[in-house]
Amino acid sequence: MRKRASDTEVLNVSDEIGKSGGGIAREVGKSEATQQRILAAALQLFRERGFEAATMRDIAAAAKVATGAAYYYFASKDAIVLAFYRQAADEMSAELENALTGTTDLRKCLAAILEIKLHYFEPSRRLLSALAAHVDPAHPLSPFSEQTREIRERDIAVFGRAVDHSGSRLADDLKAPLPRLLWMYQMGLILYWIHDESAAQAKTRALIDRSLRVVVRLLKLSALPLMRPLRRQVLDLYKIVSGS
Amino acid sequence: MRKRASDTEVLNVSDEIGKSGGGIAREVGKSEATQQRILAAALQLFRERGFEAATMRDIAAAAKVATGAAYYYFASKDAIVLAFYRQAADEMSAELENALTGTTDLRKCLAAILEIKLHYFEPSRRLLSALAAHVDPAHPLSPFSEQTREIRERDIAVFGRAVDHSGSRLADDLKAPLPRLLWMYQMGLILYWIHDESAAQAKTRALIDRSLRVVVRLLKLSALPLMRPLRRQVLDLYKIVSGS
DNA sequence: TGTTCATCTTGAACGTGTTCAGAAATCGGA
DNA sequence: TCCGATTTCTGAACACGTTCAAGATGAACA
């Protein structure tokens, strides 16, 4: 009976598409179309009414299927948000790569990355609060959960390339953890942005601009031989948290 | 009909106790006893089964009342956790004051504060994840919500006194924001502790010890005239976030 | 004692996310 | 074209948090 939607493997958009010739593949894309219809209906309702006010019954009705069908494609209501998150990561990746090659100035590069993400998520800002309201690593929608691991790691890799491309001279022991640290930093900014109710999220904009300068300044400072003991202390904290 | 449990004023333990002589007061403490019975039953079930697995029906049954009665005393399931949080803050306050006068060493003082809280919350560690799983300031149970404001502000005041009692020389512009900054720092540690699955939460223990040294070291560093520009930059970030 | 009235209590009912037994649709192969 | 198998879909049913109209309780007063 139930075969599709599992907890970890929620959305397999590109699955089975390639094997139309091989095994079990009917009218190409029929199933995928339904799934996309449900996803689209859900996202529209989420944006219109908010995550909680949009019920699974409404979503299914809007997608012209029965309630149960939604659960055939998505393991849970949360999983729909997760699918959106994955789609977002995919759609942004090309743009992000462009941003990386645009400049060797780390500050500008980080600013560009953040600009891309905020611009992309702008229409879904409130929806994201459903995704990022949780800090519990056990919650599927947490940015720190197992379910979001793949997206997270790919995202961290982007920061890794940003660091590589930049001309900044860095302390050697900082090079390995820095991508993940920068990712955490941007996660904090995005979290703040989601809940920022100032006009046009001006506060977040200010925070990004100012904090980027601080971050880059700290990076330069930390490269000084004088700062080595403190840097080691801070990196020890990172080691504890990152669990190595 | 419904008069009790409102959203902001969830638990009025000490309400109406004083006016037994004045107006409407029956068998003294009857109502309070019921409320406490519900709270106690809830906490026991929360600890036994976890917040989500303990249903309001179970809680009411364990307290020997109908389901609706629980909602007469508590506006929601969350509100019960909130009541627990308030009770905890009350019960810890005396101990915290003691810790403050115990030493003039800021590091030891902060360590003592954290020790008291972790020790108190130890049996309810998992329950706290229901309280602290949210970073959304709009969520009642968020440490940053309006509903938890009073507890938060009182708690920040504790850190204020800790700073005052300490002999550390601090930059003048740091004195005002420092208590809140320290509170945020401890909140981060507690958050980490809640989700720390290492044996006996050893990682949190290590993190507290090491990070406290870093914090104190940074405070000393920040007092140096050389560090003034960077300190100003960081304080600007604080101003943006704290919304002034 | 009987009446009044706020306080307290009840349990059925609502809307929610989710499950599931089975029906319908569609496939590959005879 | 028909058959068995697989995928896709249905809608009633479940357990949950929560609401609410109605009832029960008991103190204060006549």
Order of helices and strands of chain A: HHHHHHHHHHH
Determine the N-to-C terminus distance of chain A. 42 Å
Q: Nearest-angstrom radius of gyration of chain A?
A: 21 Å
Helix/strand class of chain A: mainly alpha
Descriptive report:
2 copies of one chain form a homodimer. Chain A is an all-alpha fold. Chain A has helices at residues 30-49, 56-62, 67-73, 77-102, 106-121, 125-132, 149-165, 172-175, 178-194, 202-222, 228-242. In chain A, helix 1 packs across helix 2 (56-62), helix 4 crosses helix 6 (125-132) and helix 4 (77-102) runs parallel beside helix 7. The longest helix of chain A is centred in the middle third of the chain and has 26 residues, at 77-102. Residues 8-26 of chain A have low confidence and may be disordered.
Characteristic key phrases:
244 residues, elongated, homodimer, 11 helices, mainly alpha, DNA-binding
What's the layout of helices and strands?
The structure is a homodimer of 244-residue chains.
Chain A (H helix, E strand, L loop, with lengths): L29 H20 L6 H7 L4 H7 L3 H26 L3 H16 L3 H8 L16 H17 L6 H4 L2 H17 L7 H21 L5 H15 L2
Helix pairs in contact in A: 1-2, 2-3, 4-5, 4-6, 4-7, 5-10, 7-9, 9-10
The structure holds a DNA duplex (30 and 30 nucleotides).
In short:
The structure is a homodimer of 244-residue chains. With 244 residues, chain A is mainly alpha-helical. Helices cover 65% and strands 0% of the residues of chain A.
